[in-house]
Write a sequence for this structure.
């Protein structure tokens, strides 16, 4: 059906806009998930003082989430393709909220087991949160046509900045006035309530009671993968060695994965060590950190949305998908590397300005999440998203630990900022000189019956 015919039709057949409500739920759920990853960075200083946790131990506690996230990415992608993204995502949301809540009782453990207990809880959090990013990609691929996918992807990725903007000041307030326990208890209860809302209002395009035929036709005609949201009965045969080889021997896909590794290094710095950098490296108190962190978060949110808008605008003007995705990504990664200059200034205002510019650039670059849907075979979006996030999660293992050792051995964040900033340059290089022209990956392997 022609889109213009739908627009010109009587009001009775005007297409519904349920996809925007689904996108809103993705944004809220992703913001809660990312706040649950970052809550240790807000509570970390108080917990370190009260529970005797060292910088290296804290670095490992930041990192262990990603250890589990790496291990679970491919199984998570298989679960999404096999049982449907909506169902798996909802279960994941409930479980990660439960593990967040339990972390608030960590001081009830024997003294020698506190770090080990937190380690196990953060590991469990990473396992059950693993369907988040590939689930977002899969749901967006089902609910949005290709021409809207860049903006939709950028909007749900902006949830990480929404998490900083909304939840960091609240968590800072809770730590300051109520104690670090309430950060975990409050976020856990919020996530459990959101799970109930998800179960009631989110469905696949083919089963949602509020979607009309006009919107379904619009999604199909625009290339949305509406069928995959209900799960694939043959999904048990999707994750094979041949499938993995197809992705991992493609120069295009390897360049995309390294780009995600570099982008994730920026993300994990801001989600883990950035608040502690402001406290220990720049002398701010935790209440000030909650307020100061909002400025970079606003810039990151604006950059995230703008990256998708720019990408889709370039597509509508006739530019290739390759140009539409690479322009905001490369520009953003180069801007994100400017945080290195924080090593050469002493003014808190200038440092916050540089971090704001870096987070704005990281937001622009987050359009790379749309590349998964652009390049993966339709039936393998979950697996492709799992591999994509696996590489990002490896960065989440490496970055917090390297920073922890650098801070403990040198007593400053100088080396840490060089380390993080270099990732921006490497990511831009990959998209300019390694990936080549972005195009859908030809599925050369066949699932054996």
């Amino acid at each position: 059906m022609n889109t213009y015919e739908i627009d010109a039709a009587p009001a009775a057949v005007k297409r519904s806009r349920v996809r925007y409500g689904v996108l809103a739920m993705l944004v809220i759920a992703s913001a809660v998930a990312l706040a649950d990853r970052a809550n240790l960075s807000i509570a970390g200083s108080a917990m370190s003082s009260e529970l005797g946790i060292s910088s290296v131990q804290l670095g490992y506690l930041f990192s262990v989430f990603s250890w589990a996230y790496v291990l679970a990415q491919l199984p998570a992608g298989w679960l999404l393709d096999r049982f449907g993204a909506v169902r798996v995502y909802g279960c994941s949301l409930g479980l990660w909220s439960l593990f967040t809540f339990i972390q608030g009782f960590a001081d009830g453990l024997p003294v020698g087991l506190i770090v080990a207990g937190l380690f196990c809880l953060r590991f469990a959090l990473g396992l059950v949160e693993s369907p988040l990013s590939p689930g977002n990609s899969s749901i967006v691929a089902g609910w949005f046509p290709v021409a809207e996918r860049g903006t939709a992807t950028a909007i749900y990725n902006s949830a990480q900045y929404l998490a900083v903007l909304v939840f960091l000041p609240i968590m800072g307030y809770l730590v300051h006035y109520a104690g670090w326990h309430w950060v975990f208890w409050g976020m856990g209860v919020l996530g459990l309530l959101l799970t109930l809302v998800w179960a009631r209002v989110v469905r696949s395009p083919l089963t949602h009671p509020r979607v009309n035929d006009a919107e379904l036709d619009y999604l199909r005609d625009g290339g949305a993968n509406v069928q995959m949201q209900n799960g694939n009965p043959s999904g048990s045969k999707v994750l094979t060695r041949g499938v993995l080889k197809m992705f991992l021997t493609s120069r295009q896909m390897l360049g995309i994965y390294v780009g995600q590794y570099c982008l994730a290094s920026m993300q994990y710095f801001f989600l883990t060590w950035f608040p502690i950098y402001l406290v220990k490296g720049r002398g701010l108190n935790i209440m000030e950190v909650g307020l100061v962190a909002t400025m970079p978060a606003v810039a990151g949110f604006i950059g995230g949305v703008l990256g998708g808008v720019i990408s889709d605008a370039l597509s509508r003007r006739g530019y290739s998908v390759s140009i539409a995705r690479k322009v905001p990504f490369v520009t953003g990664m180069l801007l994100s590397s400017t945080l290195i200059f924080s090593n050469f200034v002493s003014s808190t205002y200038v440092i916050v300005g540089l971090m704001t510019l870096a987070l704005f650039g990281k937001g622009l670059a987050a359009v790379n999440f749309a590349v998964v849907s652009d390049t993966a075979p339709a039936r393998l979006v979950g697996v492709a998203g799992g591999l994509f996030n696996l590489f990002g999660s490896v960065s989440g293992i490496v970055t917090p630990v390297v920073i922890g050792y650098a801070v403990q051995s040198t007593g400053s964040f100088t080396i840490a900022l060089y380390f993080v900033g270099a990732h921006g340059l490497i990511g831009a290089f990959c998209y300019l000189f390694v990936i080549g022209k972005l195009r859908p990956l030809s599925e050369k392997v066949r699932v054996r019956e």
About this structure: Residues 18-51 form the longest helix (34 residues). The two ends are 35 Å apart (CA to CA). Residues 1-11, 445-449 have pLDDT under 50 and may be disordered.
